């Protein structure tokens, strides 16, 4: 199977400096051209050549290190944020709005999502089989789906939306509506 061309169309051959007659004569003064590293082109002849500048080398080493929270956090890695995780984190930030009876400490005021976190599954003990357990129907894939399917939360959200709509409704037209027994027209009829 000796073919001069690769089957895929890719081939690689190292570039060896060609010695001329002048170069052979001055063997001590032979200078091989060093490959220059540029940020746009990191590969030289198909091989990676690290930069000679220590600042660029340090920057490159920092990029290659794993992104963790540090040794005091047991090198917790930064997870990739998917749209589902992003929604769950936003819901956790707004958790004080969800339940009027439960009060939380004020967290950090930054509007950015946390960089380092872990997601786990709560496993209930056998003693909570009848009391605090979610049934299979109530379990959802994400926290957002679980909150949207909760009946108590639906009723609370509906009531709050109606209260907000009532407060923002313009009041100018209200004085011309007939309000039953309390309106002016009904009062005139009652006086007669």
From TrEMBL:
One of its GO terms (cellular component) is nucleolus. GO terms for biological process: RNA processing. It holds the Pfam family Fcf2. Residues 178-192 have a biased composition (Basic residues). InterPro entries: Fcf2/DNTTIP2 (IPR039883), Fcf2_C (IPR014810). Residues 66-160 form the Fcf2 pre-rRNA processing C-terminal domain. Residues 161-177 have a biased composition (Basic and acidic residues). One of its GO terms (molecular function) is RNA binding. Keywords: Nucleus. Residues 161-192 are annotated as: Disordered. It is found in: Nucleus, Nucleolus. Its main location: nucleus. This is rRNA-processing protein fcf2-like.
């Amino acid at each position: 199977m000796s073919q001069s061309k690769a089957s895929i169309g890719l081939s690689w051959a190292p570039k060896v400096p060609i010695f001329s007659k002048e170069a052979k004569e001055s063997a001590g003064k032979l200078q091989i051209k060093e490959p220059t590293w540029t940020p746009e082109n990191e590969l030289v002849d198909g091989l990676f050549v690290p930069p000679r500048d220590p600042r660029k080398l340090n920057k490159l080493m920092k990029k290659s290190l794993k992104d963790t929270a540090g040794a005091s956090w047991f090198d917790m890695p930064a997870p990739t944020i998917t749209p589902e995780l992003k929604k769950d984190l936003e819901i956790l930030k707004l958790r004080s709005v969800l339940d009027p009876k439960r009060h939380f400490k004020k967290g950090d005021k930054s509007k950015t999502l946390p960089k380092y976190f872990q997601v786990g599954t709560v496993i209930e003990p056998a003693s909570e089989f009848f009391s605090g357990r979610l049934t299979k129907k109530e379990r959802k894939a994400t926290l957002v789906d679980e909150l949207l399917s909760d009946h108590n939360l639906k009723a609370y959200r509906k009531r709050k939306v109606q209260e907000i709509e009532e407060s923002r409704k313009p009041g100018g037209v209200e004085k011309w509506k007939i309000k039953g027994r309390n309106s002016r027209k009904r009062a005139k009829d009652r006086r007669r």
